[in-house]
């Protein structure tokens, strides 16, 4: 009975740890990878908090046009030496209050409402609103950058993994061919040169194998870092993806779309508008500020020893104004600074538009180039497979040379590498166009 119980217990533990291992090694799709990166990436989290901070500043600006209302109260002891008045004909002087400390309680309610500030409040609201919109575009840009990096890292890893598979397959074929050469050499059919040449090719292939395996490890580390995971974690990515690719609209159409969607371009235009409004904001400092100020309150004073109590109420409603007539030319220079900043941004506009056009053009050309390379590589791969097949048959039949087999094997390896490189480069180029246009595609 104990043996049965122990067996059940160990089986239970096995399923627990197997389930945990399976959860850790689940196959990730591209969409899942992007979702994980957006949830964990520190740049995304930082940009989100900056957006929240900008939203809070906008709400502060909105609150500045509303009245400021406050309540206050105090309680304690107060002493003031009374004023004595002596009137002719009276033996006792008149005092304004008992000569003792009084218990004093005060209550007050006050209101302060801006009436005129030279337009600074409205401009302040506009500036903080544009700052919030700019922060929103910065947040979108960070997300787009992270998405592109994940897409690129995802396909770079799959490309590296496929390169390892291609090289390993070529190693197996070369080892098989080496056995055939050794057999022919021992039979006196092949020369020692053939044997040495094949062994050399195998050694060179091993060198290539080490390089692609290292490349796969580096791609794994990079991708884990993008997802915020331990860099030594195992990666299991889904390689399911369409083998056909739709084309994009014309370059001019994409460029127009980029100018309407690129977060950095929209943010730049908002920054230029903020700079222009800052000129008006500083100009408003040359005008007076007028506020409506009102208050009401009550003061209760109690002189316990003399049993005297005063309960006095008060209120006031005033228009309060202030006007800085001279500040040592500080504000004048602030206006000059704001104008220079606005002009500087105008000068940068053309260079930024050209940079966007160049970025999109490069991505557009790379996508077209990758499609053409894929078509050429697919045809070359088909030819290389046939060439190797015939070369091996000819060699086995002793009508072909060892060199022709090695050349065919090398050509097939190159064709397969070109094919898979072009296939994944198309997907990366498509993501690059999405990023250049200002859309994520996910």
Automatic annotation (TrEMBL):
Pfam families: OEP. Residues 1-23 form the signal peptide. GO terms for molecular function: efflux transmembrane transporter activity; porin activity. One of its GO terms (cellular component) is efflux pump complex. Keywords: Cell outer membrane, Membrane, Signal, Transmembrane, Transmembrane beta strand, Transport. It is found in: Cell outer membrane. SUPFAM superfamilies: Outer membrane efflux proteins (OEP) (SSF56954). PANTHER family: OUTER MEMBRANE PROTEIN TOLC (PTHR30026). Belongs to the outer membrane factor (OMF) (TC 1.B.17) family. This is Transporter. It comes from candidate division WOR-1 bacterium RIFOXYB2_FULL_37_13.
